[in-house]
Amino acid sequence: MKQLPTFPPLLKGHRIAEGKSPVRRAKAMVEKGELGAGDLLWVEDKNNLQYCVIMEPEVSRARCSEMLFLMMVAFGDALGALAPPEMAVTYKWPNDIQLNDASIGSCELELSSEEIDGIAQWMIISIQIAIKPENILHDPGNEAWRTTLWEEGCGEITQIELLESSARHFLNWMHTWDEEGFKPVHDQWMGRVCEKEKILPGLTSGEFVGVDEHGNALVKSVDGVTVLDVVDALTVVNSQRVTG
After folding, report:
1. In whole angstroms, how far apart are CA 227 and each of 56, 210, 224, 233?
2. pLDDT per residue over 29-69, tens digit each?
3. Contact assessment for residue 212 and residue 190, using Cβ atoms and an 8 Å cutoff
4. 3-state secondary structure of 38
5. Which of 85, 107, 129, 213 sits between 20 and 30 A of 70, alpha carbons compared?
6. Spatial separation of the C-alpha atoms in residues 56 and 211, rounded to whole Å
7. What single-letter DSSP state applies at residue 147?
8. Which of 151, 237, 145 is nearest to 200 (CA)?
9. How many CB atoms sit inside 10 A of residue 156's CB?
10. Mapping DSSP to helix (H, G, I), strand (E, B) and coil, where does residue 77 land?
11. Whole-model pTM?
12. Which are the contacts of 152, defined by CB distance < 8 A and separation ≥ 6?
């Protein structure tokens, strides 16, 4: 009998077959009214951690982007609880998660186009992490920009362990966010940000100096400090991923 993950009481897990998109499934079911806040859809895939959480925001669209950073910070804590202490988890704006200076995954955010009083009816926050390479015989030197937990010496961590830990830390950070706002998430994320000169190439010129109170990038240039919208950056990053 296959082991199923155990989730905290506020989350209800739904298993999705390997090869299916949890975000597409979540979007279809929430639009039909079959799923809602607290439903977590996860993919049964030993090589990858893929899951999403449906949320019903009570804040403006501008603040929904804060969930990207909350999910990244939660995963960093989750992996830190399972991996050897020398594993260095860092973040690359807007949504990339890195281990030992190579990408192991990313987070995504999707918002309903329908809203009431400026508040989206639903949002879906998702994460995908590479646990093992699809081909165990592949040469990691061919794609040095990305890696897997297995390649970084964390191959003993199972998908179920990582899923359970990530979900628990996500709820812990949601509680902190509810009580204290974005600042604790912001501070934790900035404490793990990757080398700043690696962040903005391909997005804009200028120097990354941090993120604002909603996760937008603060960019310094000869003209002063400007703000780069995180949602716009996600669109650019995703289009580069498709065309690249």
Report:
1. 27, 10, 10, 11
2. 999 999 999 999 999 999 999 999 999 999 999 899 999 99
3. no
4. coil
5. 85
6. 24
7. -
8. 237
9. 10
10. helix
11. 0.93
12. 87, 99, 100, 104
Whole-number Å distance between alpha carbons of 204 and 219: 9
Region class of 57: left (phi > 0), else alpha (psi between -120 and 50), else beta: beta
Place of tokens 């000169």: 197
Give the list of residues 6+ apart from residue 14 with CB closer than 8 angstroms, or none. Answer: 35, 39, 40, 41, 42
Beta carbons of 150 and 131 less than 8 angstroms apart: yes
User: In the chain, at which residue ranges do the beta strands (DSSP E only) sit?
Assistant: 12-16, 39-43, 48-55, 89-92, 96-99, 102-111, 115-116, 119-120, 123-130, 207-211, 217-221, 224-228
Going 91 to 128 to 160 to 111, the CA torsion angle's sign is: positive
Amino acid 55 reads M
| Residues 124-175 pLDDT 10s | 999 999 999 887 655 555 667 899 999 999 989 999 999 999 999 999 999 9
- Burial string for 70-79 (b: 16+ CB within 10 Å, else e) reads bbbbbbbbbb
Cβ count near 120 (within 10 Å): 19
